[in-house]
Design goal:
The protein is an alpha+beta fold and about 230 residues long. Helix content is about 45%, strand content about 25%. The strands form 2 sheets. A 5-stranded antiparallel β-sheet has the order 6-5-4-3-7. Strands 1-2 form a two-stranded antiparallel ribbon.
């Protein structure tokens, strides 16, 4: 990689994260930590507002931006592939924004890169999830973002219908099945609920805050240790 390209990539990596260590940058760029220190110092001397220091980490000062990015042919094809493959699994609230974002990206490509991206021979079935499931998933996602508690009417694997009040933490896609990971107040533990088995859901007025032992990070740590 040319040094100019490497400097550009360093800026992209730093501004895309809250804090980037020299070790992280060196691993991503496949160079030594010493080279990263030298490149960051050069960028700072050129006026790029990188804050931080060696041994701690780097971040970009708020308000700094670069001109619109140009994507390579491979990057453009990767973006097209991601949107095409994801579309059948997206809920109604994300399909149009995903296609709009892709159109904006394609509009700024060179003619050759755009032609290569649009002719990519990677597709997914056009038929998506049914409307009821799509709307349910969208409501779950929105509740996760707004941090509202939900009351679920849920059909378990044994065919019994149960009612739960949960704190939705994240939605996960497992091939043909979506699940919502949540803190279940009835069980006082983490539970995963298949979206297609949720018979009804009600958005409650009550919101929740992160509490020790009940967060998505706690769930991930529990799963990693199991």
């Amino acid at each position: 990689m040319r040094r100019a390209d490497r400097l550009f990539q360093i800026v992209q990596l730093i501004r895309g994260r809250r804090l980037s260590t020299a070790e992280f940058l060196a691993q991503r760029l496949e160079v030594s930590v010493r080279t990263v220190y030298r490149d960051v110092a050069a960028l700072q001397q050129q006026g790029v507002p990188i804050e931080g220091e060696a041994g701690v980490g780097y971040r970009m000062r708020a308000g700094f931006d670069l001109p619109p990015l140009m994507f390579t042919k491979d990057e453009a094809q990767a973006l097209v592939a991601v949107v095409r493959l994801a579309r059948p699994a997206l809920d109604a609230g994300l399909i149009a924004p995903a296609e709009s974002a892709l159109s904006k990206i394609l509009a700024v490509l060179s003619p050759a890169a755009r032609a290569a991206a649009e002719s990519l021979a990677v597709y997914a079935p056009l038929s998506g999830m049914d409307e009821g499931l799509s709307q349910r998933l969208m409501r779950l996602r929105e509740a996760t973002e707004s941090r509202h508690k939900l009351r679920l009417q849920y059909l378990d694997l044994g065919g019994a219908s149960t009612e739960r009040v949960v704190r939705p933490l994240a939605c996960f896609f497992w091939g043909p099945v979506w699940t919502v990971a949540a803190w279940c107040e009835k069980r006082s533990d983490f539970r995963s609920f298949r979206v297609d088995r949720i018979q009804d859901l009600t958005l409650l007025d009550e919101r929740f805050r992160d509490e020790p032992g009940k967060t998505l990070a706690d769930l991930e740590r529990a799963q990693a240790g199991s």
